[in-house]
Amino acid sequence: MHSGALWGRLPGRPRQGSVWRAVRGGKLFDGTWASNHHSSARYATTSSVSRDSATAPSTTASRASSLHDAFVSRFSAQILSSPHRDITHVPYGDWFALYVQARKHWHALDSAPARVTPASREGGNTEGSEDAEVLEAHVRHAKQGIDAMLLSSLFARHWTEVHTVTTSTPSSSPLSTYRWWWHHDSLFSAEAPASAPDRDAVPPPLELCTPGFLTEPLLGGNHVRLWMEGIRASAGVTDAAQDAAAVPTAIIPFSSLWVVKRSAYCRPSAADGSGVLGNSGAGSSGHETATFTLQERQARQALLQSVDQLLQLQREAVERHEDTLGFPADQLQRVCVLSPTQEWDLLCDLPRYRQALCRPARPASSADMSVLEGSEAASISPPRWLLLSCLCEDTSTRLAYYAHTLSWRRQLRSSANAPAIEAAPFAVRVLSPASEHARFRNLSLFSLHEQSFMKAPLQRRHVARHRSSSSVVSGASAAATVHEQARKGCSEAVRRMSRREENIRQSFWVR
């Protein structure tokens, strides 16, 4: 009966109020990991000489898990402190700054020298490789946890659906109860196709969706409907398996979903204050917080649910056909999400991209090389918009940088010996409305399109299915998207309200 009182009088028990205030203020982990990360890594790698080599992997695992859990908990604490657990209330640059801190500590943990013991000398390089594999697995697990939390905040219809660290038990994996769009197979994979017989195989083309394309009903809405119908008919999976290099991959960046989510709800003010994470120097642009009507905000909410449902249906189709067709999951999907950690990894490659952009193209001969070294063309200044502050504040600039970086990575993968950026044929197609083409042309993007490469074959299959079917409109096709279901629900609600008002009016006349 007095167990609660005895537990409260224990000297080692922390106070709940102090811990919560530390988490809210970011002091619980900043003081521990940000200032003393070298001492903590040194303390974690210290081992006694009398211990055997079998304890080394467990020490590395506990060291890595504690650090990665701490940074995942920092993301979770920031989400919990945001209004309605909506991550768009915090500037995009603040999330990126927090991820940069995590990357620095992961790199410091990876490069921390372990103490040499007689047992480690006997083991050779086996323990080092095992430690590297353990650290790599924990980094990958931490990135998946961060992606799951941030993407669940964008797709959640209610704040209780947002995935945080507290929603999963400590013994189970944070991703054990989440399998659809946040699954690693539903995210964009930048690797080369696994079925390629040689390195000269042409990778499938990429199409980057902008927020203007997604929010346009005749563009993004029509494409989402066709994608969902194609996945339901299971025709797209077989086509992708037959010719994986010809079917493009539509990429929905996290930044595009960020803009859609931010405009889907009414904001108290257009100007966003500084984030709780501190002065990161990166806020949100003012043109992204324009005022929208109630119908426009509801359409954006329905768009997020439609994309969520599309990725869920695609994942189910991949699980059905992956074993029968024998193709990996990243080749059987049409639409994928560029996750937050993948975007931030691309932003971290900004210095390398600027250096490669300033380096001139390779000349054909050594004579041309000598001429080029003495000329002024050897120094090419990068464009002014290739600054980290511009990329964190403006969504259009950030999407243009992602398109350029993805093309550059494909060029490096195709020709590993090419040190400079050349006119590669791997230009990423940018799907955007015509009103945004001038803006993207100023950012050196010229592969701009209003329609996807897949729309024409999808429309032909859609017309063929309707002609072959006996009924013109079926119940399944009528409720194909969440937007149509919401429209039906609104019409029924209006009809019930009008009928109720008529009944009340008649009751007053009777009285």
Description of the molecule:
This protein has 511 residues and is mainly α. It has three domains: 16-45 and 56-114 and 127-167, no CATH class; 184-360 and 381-468, no CATH class; 481-510. It has helices spanning 3-8, 16-25, 27-34, 37-45, 55-81, 92-110, 118-123, 126-155, 211-215, 217-232, 235-242, 254-263, 294-325, 329-332, 340-348, 350-358, 366-374, 388-393, 395-414, 437-441, 455-468, 475-478, 482-510, and strands at 206-209, 249-253, 335-338, 429-431, 448-449. A five-stranded parallel beta sheet has the order 3-2-1-4-5. The longest helix has 32 residues, at 294-325. It is globular, with a radius of gyration of 27 Å. Mean pLDDT is 70; it is low at 1-61, 168-181, 191-199, 235-242, 270-288 and 363-378. Residues 40-63 are annotated as: Disordered. Residues 40-49 have a biased composition (Polar residues).
SSE blueprint:
Blueprint lengths: L2 H6 L7 H10 L1 H8 L2 H9 L9 H27 L10 H19 L7 H6 L2 H30 L50 E4 L1 H5 L1 H16 L2 H8 L6 E5 H10 L30 H32 L3 H4 L2 E4 L1 H9 L1 H9 L7 H9 L13 H6 L1 H20 L14 E3 L5 H5 L6 E2 L5 H14 L6 H4 L3 H29 L1
Parallel strand pairs: 1-2, 1-4, 2-3, 4-5
Helix pairs in contact: 5-6, 5-8, 10-13, 10-21, 12-13
